[in-house]
Fold each of these.
Amino acid sequence: MLHKLLFWGFAVVFPLPLVFTYDFVATVPPSLKFYIFLGLIAYAWWLLSIALSVRPSWLDRFVGLPSIYGLHGMLGVLAIALAYVHSDYSYSPSQLARDLGDWAFYGALGVLCYSVFFLSGWLVDRSKLLLRAKGLLETVFRHRFTVWIHRINLVVVGMIWLHAHLLVRVNQYFAFMTLFDLYTVTVLAIYTWKKWIAPDTFLRGSIMINDALGESTRRVCVDLDSKAATLRPGDFFFLSFEGSPSVSGEWHPFSVTDDNQKTLTFTIRQHGDFTRRLDRVEVGTRVRLEGPFGRFESIVQNRDREAPLVLIGMGAGVSALLSLAAAHHTSREIHLLWAVRSPEDAYFRDVLKEYEAATGSRLRATVNVGRFRREDLVGILPAEVIAKGAFFIVGPNLAVLANQRMLRRIGVSARRIHQERLTM
Amino acid sequence: MTGTTRRTFLSLAGAALAGAGAAGCSMIEGDDKSTGSGPAKIDRPLNKTRTLVTYFSVPETDDPNNMTEDEENSTHVVGGKVLGNTQHVAQIIEKRTGAEVFRIETAEGLPLDHGTLEDLALEQQEANERPKLKASIPNLEEYDTVFVGYPIWWYDLPMPVYTFLEQHDFTGKNIILFSTHGGNRLGETVGVITDKLPESTVISNAFTISRDDMENAEAEVSDWLDSLG
Ligand SMILES: Cc1cc2nc3c(=O)[nH]c(=O)nc-3n(C[C@H](O)[C@H](O)[C@H](O)COP(=O)(O)OP(=O)(O)OC[C@H]3O[C@@H](n4cnc5c(N)ncnc54)[C@H](O)[C@@H]3O)c2cc1C
Ligand SMILES: Cc1cc2nc3c(=O)[nH]c(=O)nc-3n(C[C@H](O)[C@H](O)[C@H](O)COP(=O)(O)O)c2cc1C
């Protein structure tokens, strides 16, 4: 909570040096100043939003990737609102500046609407109908295309930068313009570094095993060139397969399934354009891995130190939970609940049996074909576990949210429910 | 893109934003019409023979054909005649009230090229100049109520309007302000004029309209005049 407060606080503070510097140097009518402030805050938030999109690993450990993307999206919305007031209430003498400001506004608004639908989950996670619509539309508007659309925001920033440079009431203040450019250059440098330079420092490895698990799932084991020293149970990586004729090099997130820092095992359900081609990826293919990311282990260690763990996984979502189980089954009471689509999809049944045997049933696994219902949960989980347990849910967004609501209804406090959704 | 579509689009976008729950635009909405501390209405009905409409306006061309975007922005064409935006508003007021009209003009002609005019206006503002006027109102004592109309220039009154206000004695008169702008509404001009004319009653309910909304001017001016009492 404190971390999140600090994180959001930073977003509030981030534009202030720009605002204060302008306030200090500029001698313009107060009403004009006010609307320029709004423009400056919007611009700073767009920049910050871009900086956040590089998802630094350390920041993920601090607040979690969902919070990073949450703030990234919120800043986009708030910036548009401020930009609207700024644009409607200020006068720009230069026609070009005015046009640039307008185009930037429309561009940002368009990208925002597009991204809210295709990337954020704010809408589609709350409606099956919209989710289905998204699924249909994604046959044309592929994730990769969406990512490119999203990058129009960089052009937007370029236009606003030029817009500001064309305005006499802004560009005449050298100290301010220097700071303004410094903000811009710093953020664009961070972005460039992340896209073109940082990948060279990422972990790398080769595919050792790529075989089928159940009906439409694969096990992909990657032998790393060097150990993933910072890897913790429950973590995930973004993977990019290099030089494979079967799949593109785009980055996809997958959770690590066991507790091994040298050979990473991923359990990947094949349902989309990218994952369906995975069976054609050959052993020996080189893989780049960005990460690790994830907060589950730090929650287990710090927040819910003594509590029994309740791990609820849907389909391949169980993989993150399995690595938590692998790490903690000898020391903690664990209830692992796994919902699968068909009996053939319960490909970890044997592994779970082994864990159960090894722990003398301190780990209890329940596999269910189809979703867990409220009466299932109440039947499986002892009252004490419901009252004290730390709950971890992983799966598709709608299922995660539905499970979360169900847990709240049987009396699990929101504070004890932690979740990871399989889209972002 | 023409000014009209821009504004319409911005309004639509704004509405969409509000709909999406991103409120926050409305906090300043109220300052469209009235700022300043004077009364919102005049205390008796307008007497057309004792009312004068004065205005400053610089249409950047008089040719209604092949206008550049800047020229279009600064003018409004009525029946094939090119009027300045503020001039157009003044004429509507004239038509509605039957009052006399006085146009504020500088002794030296102003450049009509937009960029040159802007540079000159900014220079005059920064030097706090008082450009000489072509003429003063010869019979100001015959009026109780004076409308003063101006475009916003560089977020402020055009400097010739300062000359105009300082050159006349408006003591005891009702002053009613109207203005046209390119985005920043009235700015602080109502407060500035109220401070400048402490012996007059400057009505706080000033009128302003964007140059992008000039086609609605008739209706908006009428509503405003009705609200003045
Ligand atoms: C933190 C996290 C951990 C995950 N762990 C696993 C796992 O262990 N096993 C597993 O099977 N799946 C996991 N996923 C889901 C997996 O990343 C997606 O199923 C996969 O990227 C879909 O790709 P596709 O092109 O085959 O499917 P599509 O049908 O094209 O996409 C399905 C959905 O996945 C999302 N998606 C697509 N491409 C990307 C991308 N490049 N980056 C992010 N999201 C994308 C989109 O929201 C899309 O709607 C995880 C997702 C997240 C966010
Ligand atoms: C020199 C100059 C400066 C201007 N400055 C502003 C300004 O600061 N704020 C604004 O909203 N509009 C500004 N405008 C736009 C005018 O206020 C607008 O075009 C007005 O309608 C012109 O009126 P007129 O045609 O009666 O001259 C400026 C126009 C000119 C020519």
Note: Chain B is about 35% helix and 15% strand.
Amino acid sequence: MTQLEELVRQSEVKAAPPPAPPGGDDIDEIPLYAARRKIYPQSVQGTFRRIKWIVLLVTLGIYYILPFVRWDRGPNAPSQAVLIDFPNRRFYFFFIELWPQEVYYLTGLLILAAIGLFLMNALAGRVWCGYLCPQTVWTDLYMAIERFTEGDRREHMKRESQPWTVETYARKGAKHFLWLMVAWWTGGAWVLYFADAPTLVKDLATGNAPFVAYAWIGILTVTTYTLAGHMREQVCLYMCPWPRIQAALTDEYALNVTYRYDRGEPRMSAKKAEQLKAQGERVGDCVDCLQCVHVCPTGIDIRQGSQLGCIQCGLCIDACNTIMAKLGRPRNLIAYDTDLNIKERLEGRPSTYKPIRWRTALYAAIIAVAGGIMIYTLATRGSEGISVIHDRNPMFVRLSDGSLRNGYTIRIVNKQLKSRDFVIAVDGLPSTLIDFVGLPPRADGRQLVAVGPDQTKEVRILVTDYSNTPPAASTSVLFSLIDVNSGEVAQVRDHFFGPEGK
Amino acid sequence: MAEEHKQIDALTGTATTGHEWDGLRELNTPLPRWWLWTFYLTIIWSIGYWVVYPAWPLVTNATQGLFGYHSRAAVVEDINALHAMRGPMMQQLATASTAEIAASPQLIDFARAQGRVAFADNCAPCHGAGGGGAKGYPNLNDDDWLWGGKLADIEQTIRYGVRSGNDKGHQGNMPPFKDVLKPAEMSSVADYVRSLSGLSTEAGVDLKAGQKVFADNCAVCHGDAGKGNREVGAPNLTDKIWLYGSDKATIVQGLQQGRGGVMPVWEGRLSEPAIKALAVYVYGFGGGEK
């Protein structure tokens, strides 16, 4: 065994110092249910903390302010930039207006979100968890409120260990009040996405809003208060599936918040390190100050290696760097790095970071393709649409003169804010005649379908094939919807059925 | 005893349960306590349920609950609300004629919606979910009508039925010719009838003989040219639509035993608006005549 291998082995064993078993030394008295170990995360300053504050301000800023952003869509259309209009079944996102028929864009968005998460993970581990996840963002805000009202880690712990005074209760009361205010406003902002925000705010204040609005504010208030205030890291540990999925997706090239045990071990106090160093012995940079543990919002010890509880927020990096700076040692004893790199360095090779790999290239390609398709279809979609449902019972009807007839239910979509007249044409059969059920021809003999502004209309049409050669069991036909004024065309394919083999 | 083998796992520091399989030991990791509290919370929630909603079965009844909630009452309430909502339109359906309904854009949509449900409940078992019919049960989508396909005709048929025993219902039977015609005559007339609608006939058949049998026995109802007669519901034999089938055996069978499908009377069984809605809905299948 080489000296380095021995060092790695030692560090691995040391990286997991056996904690005391729950329930004390008597292992027969292990409780059936483990109480939560309360975490008092300490405040910290540094690069990653600063990034987290910025992300928190930006994301929460967007969430709370977005409903009030206006977007002029002309008369008879809502002027809210982002609006989920359930009663009228419309979704507005700035210049994009989506109808229920276009809900597949949601599928595209979900694909982009999933692959985006995979790409993030392949590049830099769980940065989503550490910076962007709503659970992290709100918990971070709640912890800031807690430190503001109850004091930082030491003060908070000290106060809780001593008999509670009026001040303790006052501070706790203030904390829960502020928490509830944030939770309440979180629920309030949520409902604003579903109705005109300024009007709804007024209605909410005067008690005129619909009950469902108050109910949702209540639900969101309770969940925010519970999840961000009380559940915190337990959501990540017990409820969230992503740590499990992420563990299966990650590889040795992805960056992780990593304790560089090759540099940190063996741990010892700064004083002892000086002595041993003088004697020419090998010493590590870790002084076991536990700052990385104290600042951790999930209460883990990063020196035990990458683990489920680590959300990779990087606060331990900031904490460790502060200590290293004080000791005059190099920074980044804990850093975004990979286990692979540590092994490489132990074996004397330089560490590398390869962001471009087959995996990341594939993820990026999927994102580009899915995103490209979405942008293309959004940019080229027309303001009219047609969907066709073939009658299923009966599939076809034979008329008295022997010709065949198929029935279709056609839904016409008019996305423009004015009424439009359409004609419907069917191509693909030798000789066809179209009947509109219950829709008499106009005075000029044309059979037009009028569809009101921003509306859909359903018509049933009967397509008869008068050719003497009966069509095969199934013939592909093309339905064209034509705006008689603008000439705009929307098309969709369907089938014309006949008796099989005759 | 397994108890004696309990120990602390060196690597994790967690106690083991004492269970061991091929050297693999099971760690004793207790469930989190919030999990337990969640469980207690659901129990408390259920107690609230017992109190406010009907819950406990008693000997002849059940506990009623503080809310006075009753699922039966809730259904009745919903139905009453529905009737109240539809009331004005239903009233119009009841008083307007089918022609008036068909001419009114609001009424026709309402009538079709009502008719769709009534059709599925009452007519679909014989005529098919989409009115496609079956052997012996007319297809309501095609343009062939035994008793007339105008709105008023359809309403009349629905209201009083066919061979239903009602005085106002359609009457007219195809009698059995088993004892009237000889087998050879039936065979030749069947071939003749097939030839009327352009179907193939057996080689060497004397169509003239069949025509004579037809003129003597069938033309009184089906007409000299075989075009049928709606007064007695005699089908048009020259078109491509065959209620019972167009093969010779089926035609001969019809000759032997006669035909006479029955449609029941719906007046009295269905409400006035429902009958009119059905007429409008069936007319809209696409076979309705102007």
Note: The mean pLDDT of chain A is 88.
Amino acid sequence: MPDPTGGGNAPGHRPDEVLDCLGQRCPLPVIALARRLPELPVGAVIRVLADDPAAAVDIPAWCRMRSQEFLGAAPGPAYDVRRTH
Amino acid sequence: MIPSPVYLDAATAAPLHPVARQALLAALDDGWTDPDRLYAPARRARQLLDAAREATAEALGVRPDELSFTPGGTSAAHTAVLGGLLGRQRTGPVLVHSAIEHSAVLHAAEQHVARAGTAVEVPVDRFGRLDLDGWSRAVAGPGVALAALIAASHEVGTVQPVEGAAAACADSGVPLYVDAAQAVGRMPVPAGWSVLSASARKWGGPPGVGLLVVRKGTRWESPWPADEHESGRTPGAVNLPAVVAAAASLRAVTADAAAQAARLSPLVDRIRARVAAEVPDVEVVGDPERRLPHLVTFSCLYVDGEALLHALDRRGFAVSSGSSCTSSTLRPSHVLEAMGVLSHGNVRVSLHAGNTEADVERFLAELPEIVADLREQAGVAGL
């Protein structure tokens, strides 16, 4: 059952921003995330809505390569990322 | 000027070995009759088939009557999995397999599940190495008929702990099937398995020849309708000229395998190091040490895998990719997915005996600019 707060693996956390990448194929959702996250304040959470199956692999991998925090998948399909630096 | 093509996709198909070409041409003249007939030309064909079987069995260290030739590596893998499950169906319905098996094995597993069987997938780590503890627990579970483990990943090159996995299987009395398509002809296959498959075009034999080995004492039953060919393990007459060529090639590459590995492995090390150092935002994947001698995979951030393959092709480089952007399916490579590594912008380079140091140097010299150009065109440079 979807979390009413929409927090996915980040219980109770509302995203500060939602990035709609539905219908986009790899690597576009990751590019959109890489463009937008640095514009948000440190600590902010962005939710990437992405239905390309590759996003489930590539968004966590991008977070690891860029030392950003991957909070987990959220209903959508969507992925929550916190800017850490 | 169009550069001369550099073929870097031996993991899909190695170029036909010169010995295979000679053997193929000779066998087309001498081996087109049916080896099962009783006239003189058929006896000649029978001799060719027997000799090919003996040479191949010797290269693998198995008995000739344990070896069957199949119409290809995929069919050998399907037959290995389904036959292993069928032979032990009274024990139970469970197939244990790694998360990074070849799609041929996974498709056989899908069919097994669709027919009310069960498949248990064992994960791998970030390097693509089997979780041996998880494997041991899985094969010790109830109702396990067969376990399947790829000898070395065809996508990222990581060599699997086959001996440890085989020991766990032996403890639980479960036969182990090993898909050795990337290992045979390149490195010794570890012992302990009950069923093995391989594919001739990976070692410079012609396409359309697979190997299926079922060790003596293994409970295995052909999933195909009854057929008298190849010990009843695979239906239909073999493509004898191709089998003869495959056997000749295997003998040649096995004799040369250690020398080729010693030559190619440092070239792969060079690609691993230079790509990581000279292409920004790249992830080189797979185990850097316990790996195949000829294969390396990396992924370039923000680059469309299909665009990268086309750009490399225009510069004369033939490579493969596990990116979903390149395939008809939407999913990225299940191997990259299981490892949790970047799946887009993926390039697999796999070397063969004909590749030179100059080929690798040219690839390394041109790759950074190719990736940079694609990033610039996509407006993602410096992200």
Note: The interface with chain A takes residues 281, 283, 301-305, 323-325, 330-332, 336-337, 340-345, 378, 380, 383 of chain B (CB under 8 Å).
Amino acid sequence: MSLEAFHHSEPLTLGVELELQLVSTHDYDLAPYAEDMLRLMHKTPLPGSVVPEMTNSMIEISTDVCHSCSEVLSQLTPIRDALVKSADKLNIAVVGGGTHPFQQWHERRIYDKPRFHELSALYGYLTKQFTIFGQHVHIGCPDADAALLMLHRMSRYIPHCIALSASSPYVQGQDTQFDSARLNSVFAFPLSGRAPCVLHWTDFEAYFDKMTHTGVVKSMKDFYWDIRPKPEYGTIEIRVFDTPLTIERAAALAGYVQSLGAWFLNEQPFTPQEDDYLVYTYNRFQACRFGLDAVYVDPPTGTHMQLRDHILQTMDKIAPYAEQLGASGAVELLRKDVEAGQNDARWLRDRQREEQMLAEVSRQASIKFRG
Amino acid sequence: MNELMSFWGQWLRPSAGLPTVQWALLLAVASTCGYLVYRHTGLPKVVGYSIVGMVAGLLGFSGAQWPLQGIGLFIMELAISIVLFDAGGRIPWRWFRHNPMVLVQSIAESALTYFAVYWTMLWLNVPHEAAGPIALVAMAASPAVVTRVVADTRAAGPVTDRAIVLATLSTLYALTLGGAHAEMLSRPGSRFFETIPPVMVMFGVSIVVGALLSGLIRIALRYMSPESENTSILVLALIAASTAIAAHLGGSAPLAALIGGMLIKQLHPRPWALPRQLGTASSVLTMLMFVLVSTVAAQADWNLAIAGTVFTLIIVRLVAKAMGVGIGNIGTGASWRQAVWVGAAMMPMSSIALLIASQFMAASASTGAVISSIALPTILLMEVFGAVIATVALYRAGETHKPWAELPTGPSGDEHRES
């Protein structure tokens, strides 16, 4: 199978996907209610879509193509409200966060859909351990080459995305000491990590052909890269975000990415190169482990600095573009949290310190999600 | 030899007596049978417990007499109270605000069951005085059996949750109406208004004890973690105390525990972590309850006429529950397929039905005897086959940990299924 042609999309348009947890209101463990939620949600006319995910305690919502983060929020809000209403009807709750804090992976059941069963057959227990919850942000690119350029430029800011969205400190009832433990589960997949550093679509097509020739991949869906091109949409898709605890933060993160994209397109601030990736995995690890307190190694200079300082510097650079795109409020919301050293992982840890009970933390997170 | 016996005799001490040995051995056999049934068929352990109790009862085991009284009655009330306290804690009132149709569904299936069984009993020439109580006994689905089936099959999902809630609500109605009806039956010839005060006393005591129970646990949970073993012991001790007090003061101990569980869920909306911690103590009591129920129920006299009545009752009850759940399903958010399996999962009858029948027996020996002759065999059959039907329903609904096809059939089965 050859690679699909890169479709046209309006530059800097946004699409947001959120994977969400369905939990029981009895013990706040994951509850297999995806099918029932989908049935109820399909009765309500909404923007975007609501679809099943790998295991039947997960659900994925997505927006249509949006032009601004406020439009993202205006689409996510009715979807969230409908989700909450349906959940109330079923006596369950919907929760954000990158992991469920105490679910046991072996108790999960694969959603009854051929592709999920195929993946389960191939990846074994990894598919059930893939009961993790991320936010994906699509950003429209002018053309295929521009998309690859955007992808590799964005790679330098992957630690930003991880630290700002980190909301998965707990796994299987334990504090992992990571702010985002979710990405460790993604790393177990053989085709995860970074995309190959090619800057022209023809080279990417050649790479894809070679990969399909090996029989290892059949489509772009088989790549679990942190950022991957999405030719059928004319976008690149950033996949490292943990699902935030609120849709407001999800929209703000989309606004941040959009502003970064606008900066790249307008100023062409640097040309990505393979050597950028020398520190990629280290920076990624630091952001997952320490969140905003991570060390960031600047790829071109090798300078070490606090990640939070680099995020604030970047926010200064993109501020004019954020203003043009109507994303100033979103970036400001994130800036305040960075200055306060706050992210959702911190909030979850604070709640657990107070409550000493992860199920109660999940309950409070479900209240937070309701808005 | 005489010298040896004389020497040994000096060491003999008064003990708990032969009944204790009999019960201990019976429980050991039940436990083994439950394990083997579970291991080799995938059916819940409660089936094994009930079969052992049934065999013991049919063989004339003298450890439990009908009607229940004394320590046997208390143990059963205590076990029911623990189950109902937990089941009550699964019923959030806010759910009925968001989805009132679930409450309508519950009332529909209970009412349909009552009237269908009542009219069928009249049609079968069962006296009017007995037909009503038998219908009330049939109304109660068993949350005890359903929760054991759920635990053994590790089921989770909409059918599982709804079956537990609807079974608990049917129990609430049956206990309430059954208690009131038993009070009226115990005062034959009294005018309607003369029966109101004792009925109010029964409810009042149950509600006060339930509120006290939930209040004390609420206070404890302010300072103690629900995940602590000590909290579990405290909860068990308080349920035991409330069971004894409610029964002593003329209330209904199971009703008090159920109200207590429902109240604590409203007063304390935090996650319910107690069931996981109640542990072996409550498991032993529950097992004892199942053995006791089937031992007692097996003492009923069977004849062809009774058998015909019992089988008709079971069929009518099955159809009525399924139809009630189905009719009430409109607007509840569940699919029709799920409604069918919810209806099937509500088939089991067990200790609560036996307790309600026991109340009628205590209220009027003559009418009670008629009620018992039909209710006891029904309870016996529906404890065993109800558990099997509920298990099949949860498997067919796809809510068990493993699908039916993967159940173990021999010693090489997956040990992880043991819970």
Note: Residues 4 and 10 of chain B are 10 Å apart (CA to CA).
